[in-house]
Design goal:
heterodimer; A: 336 residues; alpha/beta; Rossmann fold; 6-stranded parallel sheet; elongated; B: 354 residues; two-stranded antiparallel ribbon; 2 strands; signal (chain A); SBP_2_dom (chain A)
Chain lengths: 336, 354
């Protein structure tokens, strides 16, 4: 999972209803449905977390590419903005009613979506999990994910380099999170903390705060920290929203480049800010690769009854900084 | 504005016959003490004292700048919301308009005017001016759509603006592919003029001027009088010859346009148009309006109250971050404050004013 998109809770059910209506209208990009190589008519349903998240947009490009290459039909679905089980379950149900040959599912909740996986399997539809997984993986053909803890550790390394970490020194850093319930946030933070404890004992994480998925709130958090900690050394912005907000706060205070800023997610706008020196580094995942492997695995499994893909696959993160080659920038920048 | 002489002498909402009689000094003081704005200012002062004691760095121009910068976007939509709420309606679409107008404006600057992040400082003025027009235009369009749904299709404001909220959110995601669109920027417009002494920014001055004009419209002009009349009693307003539909169209258009302006403000702040940049802001606006003393039943509310309500909201937010309250507790504290503010008003209206 990428992040918890908490839409407006007080409007609750009605909002979820209205929004999932919109979801149903933004459907399916299709590859050519039949080619000479496909043994049967294969349609792969891909139910992701929240369409508004660039992470899933990048995933969509990978999925479309691979579906085209394999000559299978892709049914791309998910809520437009809200990362939640209560909006995702009806979407999975609707998709299963279309009787796809296979299902790629990014479960927004490990427990709540377990029944949906069982339902698909019972109907003879094999399931692959990407990014996040259901609690019990026995019904799942394969689980493909990025390594969030590793991403957090790499962020700690990048930040330590930027602030010129020396043994015996003392440094203050803050971490901008999205919410307490986003599991990716938690594992990235755990990875970051573990690496700091192991290699950079002089670094103190003085504060954390939530952006509630709003970049302006992320900017607010950072602005206040800059007032509270005039001697702040670095910021770890744990996802794209926090990265945008933190960058804006530093720019408006004229502090860009003076305080280390390591972000997450290679939005084109943020990648441009590595080049202009606002970001020290960005930890990028490779969601397109995850999606390609998921489609490939399912097609192989449907055609042959087995797959060469491991039951659990971890795709490592990459760190983009000013030394990254243009080719790598092009490869890892999330597409528009 | 033509009949301003007639309306200035009384508070809207009080029937014209009950012209206030001059009060004795003690009565004036007691009126002042139970006055809504006095209470809000008291709460503000109390918050500032408490936070400053807990964290001395809170009492600084830097903090004032942080609070006012946050206040700038929300006060714009909260002022629009004040008109809507006084008219007896609600506008849930304003948060989504911030995202949509920022994204469309950024898209226009990036793809039509062909400017990118490298265009900054005073070079960005032209594109940003056009961007502002686009942003306000987008807000206006959504506002007019709200009015159409409410007036012509007879959908209640809650559902009508909920639908446009969903549509605006969806469109902003489609246009932006869910990511921030970077274009021309000028952080000098939004940064404090002098961080050590003067927390005001050019963007804030524009906001303050707009809010002041809106306040005059509500409290000194026929436009405001009609708004109160419709919110107090639609049938009576209609009977008195007010074109209710036309007026509500203007009210929702105003709310949309102000949200569009807020979208540009947030764009300036982030240096990019981001679809999620208005997430949850409609609730902040409603909270500010309610803390400011407006009634969701319509007919009651003051711009000054809303202005203070929004200020209190962000003073609390900034104070909790500065003091270092665990983020998990922040929502609880804000919720308690809102409940307390509204309860205080209810009790006060029972005891104080008849």
């Amino acid at each position: 999972m990428k992040r918890s998109y908490r839409a407006i809770t007080t409007v609750g059910v009605a909002a979820a209803f209205a929004i999932s209506m919109t979801a149903c209208s933004t459907t399916a990009s299709t590859g050519s449905s039949t080619t000479a190589t496909a043994k049967k008519d294969i349609s792969i349903a891909f139910v992701m977390g929240a369409e508004s998240d660039p992470f899933f947009q990048a995933m969509k490009v990978g999925a479309e590419d691979e579906a085209k290459a394999e000559g299978v039909k892709l049914i791309w679905q998910g809520d437009p903005a809200k990362y939640s089980a209560e909006t995702q379950i009806p979407i999975v149900d609707a998709v299963l009613a279309q009787q796809p040959t296979g299902l790629v599912l990014i479960p927004t909740d490990p427990k709540a979506l377990q029944a949906s996986v069982a339902k698909a399997t019972a109907a003879g539809i094999p399931v692959v999990n990407v990014d996040t997984h259901v609690g019990d993986l026995k019904d799942v053909v394969s689980f493909i994910t990025g390594d969030n803890a590793d991403g957090g550790a790499k962020a700690a390394d990048a930040l330590a380099t930027q602030i010129g970490y020396k043994t015996g020194g003392s440094y203050k850093v803050v971490v901008g999170l999205t919410s307490a319930t986003a599991t990716t946030n938690v594992s990235r933070l755990d990875g970051f903390k573990a690496q700091v404890a192991a290699k950079y004992p002089g670094v103190e994480i003085v504060d954390v705060a939530y952006s509630e998925s709003n970049p302006e709130t992320a900017a607010t958090n950072v602005s206040n920290w800059l007032t509270k900690y005039p001697d702040l050394n670095g910021i770890f912005a744990i996802d794209g929203t926090n990265a945008s907000g933190a960058a804006a706060a530093l720019e408006s205070k004229g502090l860009s480049g003076k305080i280390g800023l390591v972000g997450y997610d290679a939005y084109p706008d943020n990648v441009a800010k590595i080049k202009s020196g606002i970001f020290t580094a960005l930890v990028a995942q490779d969601p397109a690769a995850e999606a390609r492997l998921a489609i490939k695995t399912l097609v192989e499994f449907i055609n042959t009854g087995k797959t060469a893909t491991e039951h659990e696959v971890v795709i490592p993160n990459v760190v983009l900084d000013s030394k990254t080659s243009d080719a790598d920038f092009a490869k890892y920048t999330y597409v528009k | 504005m033509t009949n301003s002489n007639q309306t200035t002498t009384r508070k809207p909402g009080i029937p014209a016959e009950q012209k206030p009689v001059p009060l004795a000094l003690t009565a004036r003081i007691s009126t002042l003490a139970s006055n809504q704005s006095t209470i809000l200012i008291g709460v503000m002062v109390l918050l500032i004292v408490v936070f400053s004691v807990l964290e001395p760095k809170f009492f600084s121009a830097l903090t004032a700048s942080n609070i006012l910068t946050d206040w700038g976007s929300v006060v714009l939509i909260a002022v629009g919301q004040t008109f809507v709420v006084i008219s007896g309606g609600i506008d849930l679409s304003v948060g989504a308009i911030i995202g949509l107008s920022g994204v469309v404006s950024a898209w226009t600057m990036a793809n039509v005017l062909k400017v990118d992040q490298t265009v900054s400082g005073s070079d960005a003025s032209g594109p940003l001016f056009i961007g502002t027009l686009v942003s306000v235009g987008v807000g206006l369009l959504v506002g007019l759509t709200n009015a159409f749904l409410i007036n012509k299709l007879r959908i209640v404001p809650f559902i009508a603006t909920l639908s446009t909220m969903g549509a605006a959110l969806g469109l902003s995601v489609i246009i932006s592919s869910g990511q921030p669109i970077g274009s021309a920027n000028n952080f000098d417009l939004i940064a404090a003029m002098d961080p050590k002494t003067n927390p005001l920014s050019w963007a804030l001055i524009v906001v303050i001027v707009v809010v002041t004009i809106a306040g005059l419209f509500l409290h000194k002009a026929r436009f405001g009088l009609y708004t109160y009349a419709i919110g107090s009693n639609t049938f009576a307003a209609r009977g008195a010859g007010i074109n209710v539909e036309r007026h509500l169209t203007l009210v929702y258009a105003l709310s949309g346009a102000l949200a569009g302006l807020a979208g540009m403000y947030v764009y300036l702040r982030l240096g990019a148009g981001s679809p999620s940049s208005g997430t949850g802001r409609e609730l902040d606006a409603i909270a500010a309006v309610v803390i400011g003393g407006a009634s969701l039943m319509g007919g009651i509310g003051r711009i000054w109250g809303t202005v203070l309500g929004a200020l209190i909201l962000f003073t609390v937010q900034s104070g909790l971050i500065m003091v270092g309250v665990a983020p998990d507790w922040k929502k609880v504290v804000v919720a308690i404050l809102i409940a307390a503010a509204v309860a205080a008003q209810t009790l006060q209206s029972k005891n104080g004013r008849k």
